[in-house]
Known about the structure:
Layout: E1 8-14, E2 18-24, H1 30-40, E3 50-53, H2 59-73, E4 78-81, H3 84-92, E5 108-111, E6 115-116, E7 122-123, H4 130-138, E8 143-148, E9 161-165, H5 170-177, E10 185-187, E11 189-191, E12 198-200, E13 208-212, H6 221-229, E14 234-237, E15 239-240, E16 246-251, E17 254-259
Parallel strand pairs: 3-4, 3-5, 5-8, 8-16
Antiparallel strand pairs: 1-2, 2-17, 6-7, 7-15, 9-13, 9-14, 10-13, 11-12, 16-17
Amino acid sequence: MPMNPTVLLSFSIMGNNHLQTCLRSPMSDVEALKREAGIAACRYVKSGMNIGLGTGSTVKHTIVEIGRRVSQEGLEIIGVPTSESTRELAQSLGIPLMEISDAKSLDLTIDGADEFDSHFSLIKGGGGALTREKIVANISKSMIVVADESKKVDVLGKFNLPVEVSPEKFQSVIEELSTICPGKVILRRKMTDSGGEDRIYVTDNDGYILDCEFGPTITDPAEMEQMISVIDGVVEVGLFVGICDAVFVASHSGVDIMFNPEGRLH
């Protein structure tokens, strides 16, 4: 993919954990850098691939770039959207799509994250699409996350952990989660379009979301995911462990690419 001529490429080694590739840009605007990160992730998108299309404010730039390459460069891919909003964006850009139910295996998923740590574990679900996002990520041969530097944390949990639940059982799930979560467990709500009284947020799967105030205490995300997953009424947990292969990080100094040393991208 042609690179922006104002972007310079350099390499540095960060400890023994991963290679960091720095795309140094003169831009200081975070949104512009998020766009650069989203576009940079497209370097792994090749014709003939089936691609998981994530949800969020940063990965939307990836989708827009894929759409540009489809229309201007003849890129031939099929996308699998992780949300209805992503579906609408991809369709508007002319990206061919298929349903999750028809996708047995994907070559790559590019998605966002609400938090990620140095072990490449993630919190996702701020946009309410965690269930579809995890299905798509789990059937993918590799996963790239695109995020800004504020999402990098030492310990997961400052961002409230989303848990999708069955509407019929959300109250009992709140009670169970309250024995695990040190903070509040909050039923997600949203304002009506008219700006009046708020209402319960409903996912694309007709589920509810519980936002759990763990704080930065999730030191073993795999164990926490397992503990929450077995609660009756839980549909999915917004912890993604052992799935992410690389993170494209937008920062004021440029775009840093962090590779998981145990990942599938080389």
